[in-house]
Amino acid sequence: MTVLVLCLSWFLAACDQKETTGLYSSEINTQQTMNWVLDPHADLIWDSSGFVVTAQGVQNLAPSTDEEWDAVRNAAASIVEAGNLLIMPHHAQGRDAWIGHSRGLQFTGMELLKAAENRDAQALFDLGGQLYINCQSCHNQYLSLAAQERLN
Questions:
Q1: Alpha-carbon gap, residue 86 to 135, rounded angstroms
Q2: Does residue 124 contact residue 112 with C-beta atoms inside 8 Å?
Q3: Please, which residues bridge with residue 53 across strands?
Q4: How many whole angstroms separate alpha carbon 23 and alpha carbon 142?
Q5: How far apart are the first and last CA of the chain?
Q6: Average pLDDT by consecutive 10-residue portion of the chain (152 residues)?
Q7: Could you tell me whether strands 57-60 and 51-54 are parallel, antiparallel, or unpaired per DSSP bridges?
């Protein structure tokens, strides 16, 4: 009996005191997820497509090396998974439109993965625009006007 009590005590002491849902828990909040997980990868997508025209000429921003395309692929995969993270209940609970926006991130991220695998600069550019629309439509619905002004 003493062994059983000790084992139960050890088991209860080992349990995480933090409330979790299912098999996962999140250690970062929605804003941190956006700032640290989603934004850097979206920025890499946007910085890797299009052209810059200066007095010195036209600079093509599309990836030109395997390493650059790998970075785009990695960013696209992170965008897919960021969409998945944002569907978790502590981010999305009670917000059906939020889930729709998050699914849009997943879909666009999967298309970005295909563009990276195919080394398709035009698709990367077009999908970067779609990613921007996904982000902006969510921001328009969920961010306050003051927060939106800080982003622009």
A1: 12
A2: yes
A3: 58
A4: 28
A5: 65
A6: 42 42 77 94 97 95 98 98 92 88 97 98 98 95 70 63
A7: antiparallel
R_g of the chain computed on alpha carbons: 21
Helix H or strand E segment including 83: helix 66-87
Token readout for 53 is 């025209």
Whether the Cβ atoms of residue 118 and residue 151 lie closer than 8 Å to each other = no
Question: Domain residues of the chain, as ranges?
Answer: 30-151
CB distance 69 to 54 below 8 Å: no
| CA gap 93, 59 in Å, rounded | 44
Residue found under tokens 């563009």: 115
Structure tokens at 122: 């035009």
What is the model's pTM?
A: 0.79
Backbone angle region of 52, left / alpha / beta, with phi > 0 → left and psi within -120 to 50 → alpha: beta
